[in-house]
């Protein structure tokens, strides 16, 4: 279909499935084990209902916000997803360009297909980018990556903590990962690369399963970038991150690609907000310690629910991959425009003029219990 006929983010997935190579589809769409968590990620949003306000002048609505102190046209960011060139020859650059046009922030993955510098070079002056970090067993390599990123102007370091070992994505494992794959990571990191078990496992053998809480002081000593843990799944760990003085956490299960039966980020958010208020008197959204959520976000209404419950912003992953795999940069542009239009309409229908008006009383979470 032509892009004008794409009406929502789900549409990109249906088209991508038809036009992508079998291997790329397997890598992007797959999730761990029985894929229950992936299904739950989106389904969890279906248990939250709205309590809109009426008779508010909503002629003007504004859903822009700040994320770690940086302007964003919407309370969402493009999260890190590896191997962009599997889906399109321009890979992650598609995301960089569309992000610039829409004033949203892109999180660059450690395992991007384009090199880190290519992705930074493709950005407009002043365009904000974050970096997702997989921590190498060789800390000198990690230190180099982190300090280079800081020098190149990266504004936040998201350390992935839910992947000491890659989950079993069986759809992906059935595809052999071959040397011709358009990933520079795979070509350069050939040491220890196991090509027999799918793309994910082939590229991830350098990740350090020994990473632990006591390593975080070291990160603080090598960079001034805000540090955020990506992949927190219980309030106890969010509290530890806060007590360590980190800038925030992403409540995420890696799009269901790691531990199957991990809970959805939106559900964990309810628990984290309640417990951090109880234990430390914190209220959210909070400038000093920001909560992010990702997984299964497909509509502006999903984003708005997370904002109402205390998130600063949410991450969106697969929809943008499907968009550029099908249509290149114009696809991502269209996806962001759709979200933009959805925000405008839903803010009006909710009686919310700005993000600050999206408060906990706007949602009914009686179907979700805090632990
Ligand atoms: C990911 N994700 C991910 N996360 C991370 O920290 N490092 C990575 O390299 C990747 N790579 C990756 C590849 C692909 C193909 C997918 C789909 C996801 C996880 C990602 O950042 C995010 O947590 C989820 O994608 C969010 O769920 P949705 O929006 O895809 O449902």
Structural overview:
The protein has 371 residues and is α/β, with parallel strands linked by helices. Helix content is 39%, strand content 12%. It has 15 helices and 12 strands. It has helices spanning 9-19, 22-29, 36-43, 93-102, 116-121, 139-151, 170-173, 184-188, 198-203, 216-222, 235-243, 265-280, 300-308, 318-327, 329-350, and strands at residues 49-50, 65-67, 70-72, 76-78, 105-108, 129-133, 157-160, 227-232, 248-251, 290-294, 313-316, 363-364. The chain has an 8-stranded parallel beta barrel, surrounded by 6 helices. A two-stranded antiparallel sheet has the order 1-12. The longest helix is centred in the last third of the chain and has 22 residues, at 329-350. The radius of gyration is 19 Å and the shape is globular. It starts with 8 loop residues before the first helix and ends in a 7-residue tail after the last strand. Bound molecules: ligand FNR.
Could you give a short description of this structure?
The protein has 371 residues and is an alpha/beta fold. The chain is 39% helix and 12% strand. Ligand FNR is lined by residues 27-28, 41, 79-82, 109, 111, 132, 160, 230, 252, 254-255, 257, 294-297, 315-318, 321.
């Amino acid at each position: 279909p032509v892009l004008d006929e794409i009406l929502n983010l789900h549409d990109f997935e249906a088209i991508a499935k038809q036009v992508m190579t079998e291997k790329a589809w397997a890598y992007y769409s797959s999730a761990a084990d029985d894929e229950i968590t992936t299904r739950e990620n989106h389904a969890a949003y279906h248990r939250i209902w709205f309590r809109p306000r009426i008779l508010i002048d909503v002629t003007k609505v504004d859903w822009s916000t700040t994320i770690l102190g940086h302007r964003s046209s919407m309370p969402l960011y493009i999260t890190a997803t590896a191997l962009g060139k599997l889906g399109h020859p321009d890979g992650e650059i598609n995301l960089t360009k569309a992000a610039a046009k829409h004033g949203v922030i892109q999180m660059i993955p450690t395992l991007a297909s384009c090199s880190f510098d290519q992705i930074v070079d493709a950005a407009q002056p002043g365009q904000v980018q974050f970096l997702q970090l997989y921590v190498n067993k060789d800390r000198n390599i990690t230190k180099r990556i982190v300090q280079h990123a800081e020098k190149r102007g990266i504004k936040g370091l998201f350390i992935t903590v839910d992947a000491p070992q890659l989950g079993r994505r069986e759809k992906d494992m059935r595809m052999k990962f071959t040397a011709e794959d358009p990933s520079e990571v795979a070509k350069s990191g050939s040491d220890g690369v196991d090509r027999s078990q799918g793309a994910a496992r082939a590229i991830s053998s350098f990740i350090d399963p020994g990473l632990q809480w006591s390593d975080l002081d070291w990160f603080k000593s090598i960079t001034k970038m805000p540090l955020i843990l990506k992949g927190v799944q219980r309030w106890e760990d969010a509290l530890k991150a806060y007590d360590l003085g980190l800038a925030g956490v992403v409540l995420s299960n890696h799009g269901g690609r790691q531990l199957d039966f991990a809970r959805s980020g939106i559900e964990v958010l309810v628990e984290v907000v309640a417990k951090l208020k109880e234990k430390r008197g914190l209220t959210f959204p909070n400038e000093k310690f920001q909560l992010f959520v990702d997984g299964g976000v497909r509509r502006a209404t999903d984003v708005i629910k997370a904002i109402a419950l205390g998130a600063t912003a949410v991450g969106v992953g697969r929809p943008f991959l499907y968009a550029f795999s099908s249509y290149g940069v114009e696809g991502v542009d269209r996806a962001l425009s759709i979200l933009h239009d959805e925000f405008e309409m839903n803010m009006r229908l909710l009686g919310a003029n700005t993000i600050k008006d999206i408060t906990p009383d706007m949602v009914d979470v009686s179907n979700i219990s805090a632990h």
